[in-house]
Amino acid sequence: FSPSSLNLLKIIRQRTRWKLYFIYLFIAAYLGALIWVAENWESRLVFAAMTGFALVNLWLVQRPYARMKKQDLLMSGSSREVIQHYYDCLDTMLRQENFIGALFTPPAAMLGFLFAIIEEKGSAAVVFSDWRLLLLMLVVATLLVPFGAWLTRSMNKVAFGKYLDHLKENLDQLDAS
Description:
- It is a single chain.
- The protein is built from five helices and no strands.
- It is mostly helical.
């Protein structure tokens, strides 16, 4: 490997590690809110669900990161195999996270809406007993789906887009030669 390729792989691992730290921070925040902020069982349920969403995200990022680190320990393959492995791991991680971001945005928006009502009125039953509030919650969640999907994709593109493109260029150059 050339030094620039080794630096690229190191940067990808480092950014993925920072992504994991960010997820750990959110898990800690949700658990802290679950323990110290939530005052009733409905609020606790909201933060438990958010913790669950963060744990799924952690699982989706941790697996490719572990496979990247394992490949580094071995480095027994050719440079093409290692670059292909990194490309596959990173591409899989980003695709799964983009999908999960689009999937979890509506329930997270509805949970945020419910949490505000729970804290104000004391129960989520207020939302489900008034069709206007229920409709408003569903409209907000529906409007946030494209925003959540776009935001997840754009954040991943900013964080990893040029590195994924660089890996693809390296693979194309190796195929051409």
